[in-house]
Design brief:
The protein is α/β, with parallel strands linked by helices and 449 residues long. 31% of the residues lie in helices and 22% in strands.
């Protein structure tokens, strides 16, 4: 058995791993490169393997950097089966359809044909099968099983077994414990592990403090009569924010203020969340059983149409606006940022990872002026961040996840992180856990022994 690292190396995005045993080839994830123009240009390059030769793709979760090139894979000849949990399948369909307009814009920028269209999305969804956690699937010599990664609803750790060996693909590991989705699963044995390293070089603030930090941000912007802008990923982060805002409202901890979810995708994804309540953790299911509408509370307004979105401008501050995209590299948040970034009484609050090259990263790094829609916009508002809202495990959690396997694992491959984060995590694992941890290079093939 061998793995070739065709993506997710030296960068957080673009996860794409080819696993081979004999003549059978499977993929784990087929994600899009996101961030700088250099990264995004890679999306248009041909696959370095023949899509027709792939028997199956196993998907860890529904974020675009893990699924975004699946329609292209199908368009280029893949006719196998895509496997994931049922929530991931439903989320992915919405995410891919929603991304089509971004795909078209990127194609224009690079003077290329679009990666895919809606027909390709429909084709790949037609080849997609939902499977439950802990239910093994056979593909040739491979036995593949999904486990809860605790990252977003339906996210998976993927165990691939063949030739008497076992490889674990972490996907994105959750920042546990997190509301709604519960704890990630742990393992004591594996021959090899492919692990993410988004936060491999840093620690989050304690998760217990994040609700207080959110409360403070809302209270401060109400006091200053400004606007709280929250660029938020439509998938998971928005639902988690609503869950915690619901709690703050019910407990009377924040003043009554208009809170807008200005993201059609987030609104649609929240509907899918409600469909899969059986995947919620025990505590959340108990709340729902007591009649708590966990994604709804007084003051909350959802704006599905363009007209409803524009009407937010007519609501006088103070107000809170949650909108995509999470890294400010597209979506409705740009319209609000162009209006309110220059307001000293307003605040932009980051609640997720900001990739190098994104507008969100520029603002978070202290840029005094940014370009939005081709126009220069001064950044005079307050800039805040709550890293504990990250859906990714931090360094301590990544080490804790590997630790029970340290006696059995022969090699750990560090992926899905910027260079420094991956290198630091690899060194930590070698020093503290005495495991063979390496950072693979792009297109490198490694035997599993």
């Amino acid at each position: 058995m061998k793995i070739t690292f065709y993506g997710g190396v030296g960068a957080v995005t673009g996860a794409n791993y080819l696993v081979e045993s004999g003549d059978t080839k499977i993929l784990v994830d087929c994600g899009m490169h996101q961030g700088s123009n250099f990264c995004e240009k890679h999306n248009f390059e041909p696959f370095k393997y023949d899509p027709k030769s792939i028997s199956a793709v196993f998907v860890t979760h529904a974020h675009i950097d893990h699924i975004g090139r699946l329609p292209k894979l199908y368009r280029d000849g893949f006719r196998g089966t895509v496997y994931s949990t049922p929530p991931t399948k439903d989320f992915s369909e919405l995410m891919l359809i929603d991304s089509e307009h971004i795909i078209i814009e990127e194609a224009k920028k690079f003077k290329k044909e679009p990666l895919y269209d809606i027909s390709a999305v429909n084709d790949v969804v037609g080849a997609w099968k939902g499977i439950e956690y802990h239910a093994p699937v056979r593909v040739g010599p491979f036995t593949v099983t999904l486990y809860n990664a605790g990252h977003i609803l339906g996210s998976s750790i993927i165990m691939v077994a063949a030739e008497g060996k076992t490889v674990l693909f972490s996907g994105d590991l959750g920042n546990s414990p997190a509301p709604i989705i519960g704890e990630k699963e742990y393992f004591t044995e594996a021959d090899a592990v492919v692990i993410e390293s988004t936060y491999g070089d840093r620690l989050h603030e304690p998760s217990a403090t994040r609700k207080e930090a959110l409360e403070d941000a809302i209270e401060d912007v109400v006091r200053s009569k400004g606007v709280l802008m929250i660029p938020s990923f439509a998938m998971e982060r928005t639902q988690e924010l609503l869950f915690e805002m619901n709690s703050l409202v019910e407990q009377g901890r924040i003043p009554r203020v208009p809170i807008f979810v200005d993201s059609p995708l987030a609104i649609k994804l929240t509907t899918i969340y409600k469909k899969y309540e059986m995947y919620f953790d025990t505590a959340t299911r108990a709340m729902i059983g007591r009649g708590d509408a966990i994604f709804n509370f007084p003051g909350l307004q959802t704006t599905l149409t363009t007209e409803e979105s524009k009407a937010i401008n007519e609501v006088l501050p103070p107000k809170v606006i949650i909108a995509g995209s999470g890294m400010s590299n597209g979506g409705r948040i740009l319209h609000h940022e162009s209006r309110y970034l220059q307001d000293p009484e307003s605040t932009i609050l980051f609640v997720g990872y900001q990739s190098v090259g994104t507008l969100g990263r520029q603002i978070l790094d202290g840029a005094k002026e940014v370009k939005i829609f081709g126009e220069k916009v001064a950044v005079r508002c307050k800039v805040r961040s709550i890293p504990a809202y990250s859906a990714h495990a931090d360094q301590a959690q990544l080490l804790a996840w590997i630790s029970p396997m340290r006696e059995s694992v022969k090699k750990v491959f560090i992926v899905q992180g910027e260079g420094e984060a991956s290198s630091v995590l690899a060194q930590k694992m070698r020093d503290e856990l005495a495991v063979m941890a390496v950072v693979p290079t792009q297109d490198e093939t490694c035997d599993i022994i």
